[in-house]
Amino acid sequence: MKNICVFCGGDICKNIVTVVKERKGKVFIIENVPAGVCTQCGEREYDADVVSKLEIIMTKRKAIKMEKLVPVADFTEV
Questions:
Q1: What is the pTM of this model?
Q2: CATH number, position 41
């Protein structure tokens, strides 16, 4: 059975993605995350297990390999 995107009706395919999340002023870049990605609009779906692991990474800082400085710009100032 095919998974269908709830937003556009496109096909959802398994893929490995990079997730960028922000929590309490900190930005987390999490690589090699399994996701279902719509081939039409790019919308992502995550299994409950994946969401749970992302939460652990962001709250308990498990699996953090390195920290990098990231430049931040304010769009309204351009």
A1: 0.85
A2: 3.10.20.860
78 is a domain residue: no
- Among 72, 17, 69, 24, smallest CA distance to 42 is for 17
In a domain, 66, yes or no: yes
Kindly write down the DSSP assignment for every residue of 11-78, as one continuous string: BEEEEEEEEEEEETTEEEEEEEEEEEEETTT--EE--HHHHHHHHHHHHH-TT-----------GGG-
Residue showing tokens 């995107």: 5
pLDDT single digits (tens) 35-55? 999 999 999 999 999 999 999
Tell me the residue range of the domain where 39 lies: 12-70
Count of CB atoms within 10 A of residue 33's CB? 16
Determine, yes or no, domain membership for 28.
yes
